[in-house]
Amino acid sequence: MKYLALLSLLFVSFVSCNFSPGNSSAPRAANITNLGDIERISPLKYLALKSEYILDDNNKIIINGDLVNTASLAKYKDVVIQVFCINAEGAIIKREKVVAVDNIPANSRLSFKVALMAANGTRKVIVKLFDASGVK
Q1: pTM of the prediction?
Q2: CATH number of 2-135
């Protein structure tokens, strides 16, 4: 029993020495990422899209949209939307990616207009935010 108590005392002292805050090999500042870097690496968290479309008689889709950047520090470039053409049965008959906005500053709203051709048989259009790149 004394052997077990001695062994557990040694284990506790070993663990407490190795996991003390002062023994970290990396400086504490290196573990902290600044807000701008966090916002830049995940643009879709900070971008919001609101859009409406017109499908004219010539099979042309006109998309009017507003893009909002809620990031405090990060600006983004090459904001890509994906446009889905849906037929009467609800199937996707065409997908197309389009750069909607070249640059959007932090804490801003931009309006955009995109025109493209729809697939034959398109009854509905869905527009989603697809990608963007953070700018340093």
Answers
A1: 0.72
A2: 2.60.40
